[in-house]
Amino acid sequence: MESYNTIIIGAGASGLFLAKNLAEKNIKTLVIEKMESPAKKLLITGGGMCNLTRDNKTHEFLTHYGNSRGFLGPSFANFSPQDTKNWFEKRGLKLITREDKKIFPKVKNANAVLTLLLDSKYDLLTKYKIEKIEKQNNSFIIDNNYKSKNLIIATGGMSYPSTGSSGDGYNYAKLFKHTIVEPRAALASFKILNEDVSQIEGISLKNVSISFTNYFTKKNKTIYNTDDLIFTKIGISGPLILDVSKYATSEQSIFLDTNTKIVKEENNKQLSTSIKNQTQLPSRLINYILKKLEINDDISKNISNKNINKINELLKRWEFKISLKGQLKKGMSTEGGINLKEINKKTLESKLCENLYFCGEILDFSGDCGGYNLQACWSTAFTISKNINQDS
């Protein structure tokens, strides 16, 4: 049986980052990955360009994690977005910061990040399916083949299971009496149930507002947000939808406000032309709306005030029945996971089992779209590395 100071289960962003930091401290570490190669999900982040983090202040960053900001605070104090930038640049990865504050490798290729994280100073075992984990005499034993004093579970959530994030880590955590907050889709698109939007597929809109009831809160708090969206063949996506999807149930109503309105014009323009001139909405969307409301594209001066009101009501509060069923596997992140009440937020060590740690997406948090989830991976992994040394 081979002995290590630390074994990390999961060779994703947080697992490899932790292993790299431990290797730099000359701590004997093994990373176990069930897939044939590491970091499959990391390689597709940011459209394959890898949005490492953002050029934001820490306090601003933390507002993008919902109710988990308090838990993540100590990890961000240990390793901030600026620390992330410095860490990668110090190790030779050139970075660029876009106008939207997103930070990427200059080569715009996630492989460059993976190459940097891989290190011969730690052992990486791939295509290995763990059958058994137990703790004996203050050591974690894996399949009677490997043992260590410290065990870190960094297997991710349940999004994109083809990359290896299939929920295995939850079962490992249950072995040590941890409870799991039910996983649900985050950073996911909405399916629309009450309309066929395939006719307006590909239409994007800027500065649209959304509102809906968050049934996960005791007082059914209303969620509000404003951003850009895009219609898909079966629903809606884009930053507006991705950032609020974690607050939606499997099926419910949402309301969109295009932040536009029209007034009746006394001229001979076609109604659709008049609406386009006043709202700047795409012609294909306008025609879709008029057809939906059963309003003929007649000359503007003949349209009734009643129909003007109908159009404005839709532009102000367009109701969609949406579904998230089946989206957990398609979402970019997972809401839910290891119950944060059972984790020491200062060290990320389990409160139930000594020397057992969790980092990354397996924990019950999810950030908004655009580098927030990767930053949380770096910060939580670094926090654990800070608390592990040769003697621990």
Question: How would you portray this structure in words?
Answer:
With 392 residues, the protein is an alpha+beta fold. It has 2 domains: 241 residues, FAD/NAD(P)-binding domain, CATH 3.50.50; 134 residues, Translation factors (Elongation Factor Tu (Ef-tu), domain 3), CATH 2.40.30. The protein has 11 helices and 18 strands. Helix 3 packs across helix 11 and helix 8 crosses helix 9.
Query: Rg, please?
Result: 24 Å
> What is the CATH architecture annotation of the largest domain?
3-Layer(bba) Sandwich
CATH superfamily descriptor of the largest domain: FAD/NAD(P)-binding domain
- For the record, the CATH class of the largest domain is Alpha Beta
Specify the overall morphology.
Answer: elongated
Q: How many domain modules?
A: 2
Number of strands: 18
The number of helices is: 11
Quick overview:
This protein is α+β, with helices and mostly antiparallel strands and 392 residues long. The protein has helices spanning 13-23, 58-61, 69-78, 81-90, 110-117, 168-174, 239-244, 271-279, 283-292, 305-316, 372-387, and strands at residues 2-9, 29-32, 53-54, 95-97, 102-105, 123-125, 133-136, 139-142, 146-153, 180-186, 190-192, 204-213, 222-231, 235-237, 251-257, 318-323, 333-338, 356-358. The strands form 4 sheets. Strands 1, 2, 6, 7, 8, 9 and 18 form a 7-stranded mixed β-sheet that branches. It has a 6-stranded antiparallel β-barrel with strand order 11-14-13-12-15-16.
Main attributes?
single chain; 392 residues; alpha+beta; FAD/NAD(P)-binding domain; Elongation Factor Tu (Ef-tu), domain 3; 2 domains; seven-stranded mixed sheet; six-stranded antiparallel barrel; 11 helices; elongated
